[in-house]
Amino acid sequence: MDEEGYFFITDRLKRMINASGYKVWPSEVEMLLYRHPAVQEACIIAAKDAYRGETVKAVVVLRAEAKGKTTDRDIIDWAHEHMAAYKAPRIVQFVDVLPKSGSGKVMWRLLQEQESS
Predict the structure, then answer these.
(1) Among residues 11, 39, 93, 110, which is most buried (max CB within 10 A)?
(2) Which residues contact 30 (CB under 8 A, 6 or more apart)?
(3) 28: part of which helix (H) or strand (E)?
(4) Are 44 and 78 in contact (CB under 8 A)?
(5) Could you report the per-residue pLDDT of 2-56, keeping only the tens digit for each?
């Protein structure tokens, strides 16, 4: 927090998603998605979009009680209610586990590479 009471979210520049000229920081969207009652874990990556250049994609691990009950549309609609429209994921992919390093950090680069190939 700075002297005027403002908070700043920082992330690596390589992770920034440029969706129609809007800058989207994955860590901010992930933080907001963790508020969804069905989301256990989430990783935000960029997906190619013919119109926007890049778009926001959420790779999500659902809580056990939400599996089979929560759809990608549920996550997208919730996101549109709780964050700016340009930040809300347009694509949601459900996975059982997110890939993690030995120290427990989510390996977002691996997910991004899989999306790009």
Answers:
(1) 39
(2) 42, 43, 44
(3) helix 26-33
(4) no
(5) 788 876 655 455 689 999 999 999 999 999 999 999 999 999 999 999 998 999 9
CA distance 43 to 94: 11
Q: How many CB atoms lie within 10 A of CB 49?
A: 16
SS3 state of residue 22: strand
For 13-116, which CATH class?
alpha beta
Give 62's Cβ-side CA count (13 Å radius).
16
Q: How is the chain split into domains, by residue range?
A: 13-116
Rounded CA separation 17/47 (Å): 9
Alpha-carbon span 25 to 16, nearest angstrom: 5
Give the amino acid at 116.
S
> How is 87-116 classified by DSSP, letter by letter?
TS-SEEEE-S---B-TTS-B-HHHHHHHHH
Q: pTM value?
A: 0.86
Q: Which residue carries 């991004």 as its tokens? A: 112
